[in-house]
Amino acid sequence: MQIIEKAFAKVNISLNLTGQKEKNLHYIVSLVSFCDFYDTIVIEESKEFKYIINNDIKFKEPDLILKTIETVSKELERNFPPFKITLNKEIPIGAGLGGGSADAAAVIRALDKFFNLNLSYDQKVLIGKQIGSDVPSCILSKPQIISGYGDQIRELEGLNDKNILIIFPNINVSTKEIFESIDINLIKKEESQVFEKQIEQNIDFYNEGRNLTKLFSNDLEEFTIKKHPGIKAIRDCLHENDSSYVSMTGSGSAFFGIFEENSIDKVYHKITSNYKDWKIVKCKLIGSNNREIN
Questions:
Q1: What is the mean pLDDT of residues 224-242?
Q2: What is the pLDDT of residues 25-56, one digit of tens each?
Q3: Is 67 among the catalytic positions?
Q4: 134 tagged catalytic
Q5: Does domain 2-155 have CATH number 3.30.230.10?
């Protein structure tokens, strides 16, 4: 028996700071979607436990794959028989694409299927919260509004697919470092509901590709550029190639640009040929009705 589970990359279409903190965590409101660029988790039968990563990636401790297996086992008070788990890693680390959290969420879903655990969505989210603040949103892996310090998730209907280019400059950014660099006193205080309402009221503009730069933004962008000035070249490149909306995702370092279907191939080949040191991915932001994640 073999279970293959996709771990979809997370993209913050917008990310706003509310100017509030609790337990040293910044409160945010973010419009999040996921794209058809992903890692895969493969679980299969084995006479002994095996954990394989498809390349030389070295994770910081603790390894989220092992932490997730341990957390599921502990939460269910169940020791799993031996199995083999393989991580096929495509999402770059330190890019703001939520790769680690997506992998953890995929492991929860894969274990559920492989061992017939019959976990409810709420159980998966509860386990995910113990692993990391972004894991619950990755369990859902559908368009959503995230608020609080990432712990409040509301699924969002009506979002269309979008063609995007993701560019990662091979610079790893520490989310913790970026948030620690923010002076909370310089952030205008705003209630979460203001940002949530703005997102909800402008879904039609998003779907039509109108006024996106005026309606959506990432408040972390300038803080990350200040620490890593070289990534500004990505933003400039996407603007120069007539993207209808350009933004950093998460705390960076990756940026994404939205393009029309009839132009994205040409732009992809142009940027790929001119910037050999960047990882460039052509993919789709997956809309509300595209698929089901269990």
A1: 97
A2: 899 999 999 999 999 999 999 999 999 998 77
A3: no
A4: yes
A5: yes
